[in-house]
């Protein structure tokens, strides 16, 4: 059975019904207990807006294969039970992506407001772009 939607807004609402959305501060706190942030934005956006330190870069078109532990094309950090927090520019594409991960049985969330909200919350951002399927370097302490 195929589910159809009348609009992109309906599709987005459906996706958001399936996931928990996190504020930037909640997302940061989840990383302290082992959740990993995955940045699905293309390189040009990551270059313009910067990247979240220690996040993983997986562009949207490879996301499910790289994060599912049994896909055969997964990243080494993709393991059973790994929590993923998806980030995009403003929190729209990340909602759709997190919903796709949840539909595969993966614990996934997105950041409400994306990287723009992360930056507005005063959380660290480093210059990008990091190559795909790599971890973004850690922020260096100010000093």
Describe the structure.
This protein has a five-stranded parallel β-sheet with strand order 1-5-4-2-3. Helix 1 (8-17) packs across helix 5. It has helices spanning 8-17, 24-31, 43-49, 63-67, 93-103, 114-120; strands at 20-22, 36-39, 56-57, 84-87, 108-111. The radius of gyration is 15 Å and the shape is globular. Helix content is 34%, strand content 12%. It has a domain at 23-120: Rhodanese-like domain (Oxidized Rhodanese, domain 1, 3-Layer(aba) Sandwich), CATH 3.40.250.10. 31% of the residues are buried. It contains six helices and five strands; from the N terminus they run H-E-H-E-H-E-H-E-H-E-H. With 143 residues, the chain is α/β, with parallel strands linked by helices.
Compile the SSE list and pairings.
Blueprint: H1 8-17, E1 20-22, H2 24-31, E2 36-39, H3 43-49, E3 56-57, H4 63-67, E4 84-87, H5 93-103, E5 108-111, H6 114-120
Parallel strand pairs: 1-5, 2-3, 2-4, 4-5
In short:
This protein is an alpha/beta fold and 143 residues long. Helices cover 34% and strands 12% of the residues. It has a domain at 23-120: Oxidized Rhodanese, domain 1.
Number of strands: 5
Beta content: 5-15%
Kindly provide the radius of gyration, computed on alpha-carbon positions and rounded to a whole number of angstroms. Answer: 15 Å
Q: Give me the CATH architecture of the domain at 23-120, please.
A: 3-Layer(aba) Sandwich
CATH superfamily of the domain at 23-120: Rhodanese-like domain
Strand line-up of the largest beta sheet: 1-5-4-2-3
Mean pLDDT: 95
Give the SSE string. HEHEHEHEHEH
Low-confidence stretches: none
């Amino acid at each position: 059975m195929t589910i159809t939607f009348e609009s992109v807004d309906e599709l987005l609402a459906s996706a958001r019904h399936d996931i928990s959305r996190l504020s930037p501060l909640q997302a940061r706190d989840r990383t302290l207990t082992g959740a990993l942030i995955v940045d699905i934005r293309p390189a040009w956006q990551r270059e313009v807006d910067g990247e979240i330190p220690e996040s993983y870069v997986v562009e949207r078109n490879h996301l499910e294969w790289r994060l599912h532990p049994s896909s055969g094309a997964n990243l080494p950090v993709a393991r059973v039970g790994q929590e993923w927090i998806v980030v995009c520019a403003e929190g729209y594409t990340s909602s759709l992506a997190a919903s796709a991960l949840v539909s595969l049985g993966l614990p996934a969330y997105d950041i409400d407001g994306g990287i723009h909200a992360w930056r507005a919350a005063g959380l660290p951002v480093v210059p990008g772009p990091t190559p795909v399927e790599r971890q973004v370097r850690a922020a260096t302490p100010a000093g």
